[in-house]
Structure formats: structure tokens, C-alpha cells
């Protein structure tokens, strides 16, 4: 079984994330790492390969060339190789352009299963898998909290707001896994040492058959018109910590009889 896992390098999550007011885009400078939700998808791919007894796990990404530093974590966990589409003409790709590039890169791989994490911690759109599945004309199942693959069919338990759906779909299929599905393994020392030697193909847009007009800003359909901080919620109070923040929070909760 051939399993492709779409993975993305993201800015480290934390309080320092910001939108650049000049470009109205996320400031992607600073420390970066592999999107944490993608680790669940890699883990599941490795388990599917182990259960099948053979097969291949290939990581597929669109990003900057230096994203390979983060993607190697997936190789260290046990994935067999990585394909990174990296091209200056792809900078500024929105969902429409990114999904087109990923779909074309995936077509060249012809996987039986395409796995995604539930969302990316920077964009938080939780929609890329649906867009890629539509382009590949494959069934898609999201929020998977249990997964079985047998005889060319997947059976998945899909977490919903009010309970669970049980869904069957034929392969090939696009599957987005919930972070409750598994506990990602830690890369072993041997895995970390071996990751650099695994095949890591950096491809241009033309290598995957994408015309530059369908990627980057040229291929994007989103225009960010303006940005503003979210509106405060009615009865809220901002506490600046001058050393008494803990006491102020406690007073606030006591006032409302919450503690
Ligand atoms: C106008 C505009 C310009 C942008 N410019 C840039 C830019 O220059 N550089 C940039 O990095 N982002 C850019 N983005 C953000 C980028 O379009 C989104 O990150 C992308 O559409 C994915 O959406 P998401 O992050 O919400 O992913 P989600 O839908 O939350 O992610 C779901 C799954 O898809 C996977 N996935 C998402 N993106 C990729 C990818 N690139 N490769 C492999 N797997 C992926 C995630 O890892 C996750 O497993 C831009 C967005 C807009 C609107």
C-alpha cells in the first residue's frame, strides 16, 4: 500500500505569532516546525504500512526549501521519503493555489491513501483535505478517530459535534485524522540519524506540471481587505501582570461566584 501524507512546516505556535500589518500576511519569520497535527497523520500512515506488512509512506509538502528541516522529523519517525514542492512563484499561495499544487504533486505519486492532519496550526482552516480530494475526485473522510483499512475499503469512525458517524469509502481516498486517533511516536536516535539519508526530492512547479499562473499570488483567489483585532467579549477585563495578576484573576472569579 502506498500512503502519501501531506505535511506542512508552520511558524512555532505561541503568543508571538503576528500578522504583518504591511503585507496583511502572517509573519513567517522566526522558529518553525512541522505542524503538530500532521504527526498524527504520519503515525497512522506508519501503522497502516506496518499492518499491511509492506508499502511506502511518502511525505508531500508545498513550502520553502528550508521546510525540509522540519519535514525530516517525519522521516525520522519512519516515513520512507519526502517530496517538497518549492518554487518562488508559489509564494503567496492561498487555499485554491495550494490545493492545486498539492493535488498535482499527489497525482504523480498515485497513492492508495492520502492522509492529512485535522488542521494546520497557522492557518487553522481545516479545509485543505476537502479541496485536495475534490481536485483528485476521491472520497474524503475527516475527523477520523478510528480507522480500518481492509480489502480496498476504509471504515472510519468520524467524530462530530453530536456523536459519531461510521463511514465506509473505497480506496483511493483522502483521509483527515483527528488528533485523538493515536499517540505519535517519538523519533528514535537511529531514526534521526538515518533521516538525512532518506530521499528528499525538491521539485519546482513545472516538475509537478503546474503552470506558474495557477500558483502563488497569480493563482490565488483570496484578497485580504483589512485586519482588525477580534472584538472583546462583553463582560471581559484585560489584566496586565504587575505581579498581582493571579490575585486579580481570583478576585474576578470570586466576584462571579465561580470559585
Ligand atoms: C492571500 C494569502 C496568501 C498566503 N501566502 C502564504 C505563503 O506565502 N506561505 C504560506 O506558507 N502560506 C500562505 N498562505 C496560507 C496558505 O494558503 C494556507 O496555509 C493554506 O491554504 C492551508 O490552509 P490552512 O493552513 O488553513 O491548512 P488546513 O486546512 O488547516 O490544513 C489541513 C491539513 O492540510 C495540510 N496542509 C496545509 N497546507 C499544506 C501545504 N502547503 N503542504 C502540505 N500540506 C499542507 C496541513 O498540514 C494539515 O494536515 C496564504 C494565505 C492567503 C489567504
| Percentage of residues assigned to helices | 25-40%
In the CATH hierarchy, what is the superfamily? Answer: HUPs
> Helical stretch count?
6
Number of separate domains: 1
Q: What does the main sheet amount to?
A: 9 strands, mixed
Mean pLDDT: 94
Give the beta-strand count: 13
CATH architecture: 3-Layer(aba) Sandwich
CATH class (first level) name: Alpha Beta
What is the alpha-carbon Rg in Å? Answer: 21 Å
Shape: globular
Share in β-strands = 25-35%
**How far do the termini sit from each other?**
54 Å
Bound molecules: flavin-adenine dinucleotide
Q: In what order do the strands lie side by side in the largest sheet?
A: 11-10-9-12-8-1-6-7-13
List low-pLDDT spans.
none
In N-to-C order, the SSE pattern is: EEEEEHEHEHEHEEEEHEH
Walk me through the structure.
The protein has 259 residues and is α/β, with parallel strands linked by helices. It has a single domain (2-214), classed as Rossmann fold. Helices cover 27% and strands 26% of the residues. It has 6 helices and 13 strands. The chain has helices at 36-52, 68-77, 95-109, 128-136, 189-195, 245-255, and strands spanning 2-6, 9-11, 19-20, 25-26, 32-34, 56-62, 81-85, 113-116, 140-150, 153-160, 163-170, 173-177, 200-203. The strands form 3 sheets. It has a 9-stranded mixed beta sheet, with helices on both faces. β9 and β10 (153-160) form a beta hairpin. α2 (68-77) packs across α5 (189-195). The structure holds flavin-adenine dinucleotide.
Amino acid at each position: 500500500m502506498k500512503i502519501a501524507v501531506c505535511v506542512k512546516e508552520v511558524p512555532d505556535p505561541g503568543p508571538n505569532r503576528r500578522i504583518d500589518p504591511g503585507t496583511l500576511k502572517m509573519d513567517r519569520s522566526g522558529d518553525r516546525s512541522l505542524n503538530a497535527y500532521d504527526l498524527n497523520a504520519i503515525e497512522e500512515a506508519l501503522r497502516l504500512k506496518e499492518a499491511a506488512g509492506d508499502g511506502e509512506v511518502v511525505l508531500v509538502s508545498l513550502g520553502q526549501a528550508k521546510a525540509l528541516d522540519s519535514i525530516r522529523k517525519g522521516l525520522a519517525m519512519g516515513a520512507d521519503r519526502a517530496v517538497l514542492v518549492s518554487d518562488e512563484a508559489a509564494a503567496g499561495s492561498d487555499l485554491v493555489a495550494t490545493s492545486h499544487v498539492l493535488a498535482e504533486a499527489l497525482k504523480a505519486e498515485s497513492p492508495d491513501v492520502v492522509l492529512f492532519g485535522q488542521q494546520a496550526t497557522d492557518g487553522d482552516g481545516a479545509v485543505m483535505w476537502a479541496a485536495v480530494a475534490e481536485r483528485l475526485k476521491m472520497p474524503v473522510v475527516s475527523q477520523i478517530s478510528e480507522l480500518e483499512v481492509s480489502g480496498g475499503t476504509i471504515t472510519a469512525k468520524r467524530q462530530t459535534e453530536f456523536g459519531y458517524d461510521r463511514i465506509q469509502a473505497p480506496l483511493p481516498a483522502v483521509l483527515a485524522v483527528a488528533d485523538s486517533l493515536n499517540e505519535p511516536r517519538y523519533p528514535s536516535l537511529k531514526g534521526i540519524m538515518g533521516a538525512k539519508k532518506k530521499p528528499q526530492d525538491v521539485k519546482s512547479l513545472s516538475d509537478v506540471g503546474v503552470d506558474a499562473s495557477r500558483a502563488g499570488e497569480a493563482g490565488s483567489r483570496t484578497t485580504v481587505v483589512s485586519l482588525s483585532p477580534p472584538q472583546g467579549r462583553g463582560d471581559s477585563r484585560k489584566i496586565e501582570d504587575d505581579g498581582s495578576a493571579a490575585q486579580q484573576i481570583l478576585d474576578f472569579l470570586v466576584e462571579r461566584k465561580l470559585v
